[in-house]
Design brief:
Length: 502
């Protein structure tokens, strides 16, 4: 019988620890729904005690997600465990993930706790967590820099106290694959009761080895991989889910004895949604989901791929829900063809009402663009998810020049009332942002600004991402349009709405 590898996705917890990423509860739920469709076994929805916003997000996800296990992180202390249990109250499959650091450096400088005190806390608090919820995951933070004999004691106590999954985090991304293999084998041979529980690994990518380390752990006997979509996460990020899954699938010859619950056709939609909502665009050459992952530039390669895609492609774009049939619909295409395309892109779950709304938007786009590509359709569907109903919305804008300087005339609705103002600036975007400041009588610091083409033609849709700050709080804003100024205004207003709703 094949061994099932469970996927524990922490995009909404460790992934959200990516600098400047902040998602609201609704956005987290959108991602959680896509993760459920993708087939992840466990969704780490947040760290319930860390803020009221995180608590609300864990609760919202727990109330709505039925197929995947929903998990909340908790330090190994009762108040964290209580907050997690409360947020998970209505979950169909709840899990509490408790952690405590175990390495010498953390014991001495962070926790100021002896080994015995740590073991005592595990006995007491894992048992307490177990009394609240049956499915308990225990993590030894910085496990990979912990003495292996102590780690055996730590995990043996956690299992005796009721943990059902024990997790080995390479918190600082320090280990190499050979070492990871040895470490996991050692735990399997020495931890008491390990045969009754899932053995998990959580790898960070500081040295670019998180995926290789996760695979080494699977070969050594791990049954759960912790990961994020697009590899987002603290510092250099976490193991990229899409890479591990596609390696297991593409190299079945090396991993013949494993099976996974992941529907690979949902990978690309998940990647796009996470990228859009977090504002973190993967680099174009990123494995599996990067913009160039299936593009062939040189003539020799193009010729080969046309003759037989397998000459230069080890995976098919369709395997991850990215159609190879890139030239798609035009303005004469009907709703039937549009629905077929959504199905092709792994979005056949959308309700009829949503399809009708997207079809209307597609028609408007088809009027502006010669070709509507798969990427455009995905952007429409995921871009919809980025909209926030807020106090401010764009009604109309016009850019002209006065005395050699760009001038923006902008009408926006604020709390239902239309207001117009005119401002100049260094460029059309600067002028528009100045006009917004005038209307609102408010100022924001623009910390970051990025414009990415969604497709590579001159009439392409652009995606603008901004990071705005006010009183030390930063918010990401996103907008898309075939007009770069409009995309930039929408992104700014999107960020302002998040800020006002904070
Ligand atoms: O990297 C880490 O150690 C973590 C733990 C909380 C699992 O994220
Ligand atoms: Zn981590």
């Amino acid at each position: 019988m094949k061994k099932q590898i469970k996927f524990f996705d922490t995009s909404l917890r460790d992934g959200e620890q990516t600098p400047r990423v902040n998602l609201n509860s609704e956005e987290k739920l959108k991602i959680a729904r896509q993760l459920e469709k993708l087939g992840v076994d466990v969704i780490e929805a947040g760290f319930a005690i860390s803020s009221p916003g995180d608590f609300a997000a864990v609760k919202l996800i727990a109330d709505n997600i039925k197929k995947s296990t929903v998990c909340s992180l908790a330090r190994l202390v009762k108040k964290d465990i209580d907050a997690s249990a409360e947020a998970l109250e209505n979950a169909a499959k709840p899990r509490i993930h408790v952690f405590i650091a175990t390495s010498p450096i953390h014991r001495e400088y962070k926790l100021k706790m002896s080994k015995e005190e740590i073991l005592q806390s595990i006995r007491e608090n894992v048992a307490y967590a177990k009394s609240r919820i049956d499915d308990i995951e225990f993590s030894a933070e910085d496990a990979s820099r912990t003495e292996k004999e102590f780690l055996v004691e730590v995990y043996s106590e956690a299992i005796a106290a009721g943990a059902t999954t024990i997790n080995y985090p390479d918190t600082v991304g320090y280990r190499t694959p050979d070492e990871m293999y040895e470490a996991i084998k050692y735990l399997q041979e020495h931890v008491k009761g390990i045969e009754k529980v899932d053995l998990s690994v959580h790898c960070h990518d500081d040295l670019g080895l998180s995926v290789a380390n996760s695979l080494a752990a699977i070969r050594a006997g791990a049954s759960q991989i912790e990961c994020t979509i697009n590899g987002i996460g603290e510092r250099a990020g976490n193991t990229a889910l899409e890479e591990v899954v596609m390696i297991l699938k593409t190299r079945k010859d090396l991993f013949p004895d494993y099976t996974v619950n992941i529907d690979t056709k949902q990978i690309y939609s998940a990647s796009r949604l996470v990228s859009l909502l977090t504002g973190i665009t993967p680099q174009p050459n990123k494995a599996v989901i990067g913009a160039n992952a299936f593009s062939h530039e040189s003539g020799v390669h193009q010729h080969g791929v046309l003759a037989n895609p397998e000459t230069y492609e080890i995976m098919k774009p369709e395997d991850i829900g990215r159609s190879s049939n890139t030239l798609v619909l035009g303005k004469l295409s009907g709703k039937h063809a549009f629905k077929d395309k959504l199905k092709d892109l792994g979005m056949d779950y959308l309700k009829e009402e949503k399809v009708t709304q997207l079809f209307e938007e597609f028609k408007k786009l088809a009027d502006k663009k010669k070709y509507v590509l798969d990427e455009d359709i995905l952007a429409l569907a995921t871009g919809e998810a980025a909209k926030v109903d807020g106090r401010v919305s764009l009604v109309h804008f016009e850019i002209s020049r006065s005395e050699g300087k760009p001038k923006a005339t902008l009408t926006i609705k604020v709390d239902g009332v239309e207001k117009t103002s005119i401002a100049s600036g260094d460029g059309p975007i600067d002028a528009s942002y100045n006009a917004i400041h005038k209307v609102l009588g408010d100022k924001f610091v623009l910390e970051e600004f990025r414009l990415d083409p969604i497709t590579g033609y001159s009439d392409a849709q652009a995606q603008a991402v901004v990071v705005i700050t006010q009183a030390d709080a930063s918010f990401v804003g996103r907008g898309q349009s075939t007009d770069v100024v409009e995309a930039s205004i929408k992104a700014y207003i999107n960020g302002i709405n998040r800020l006002y709703a904070r």
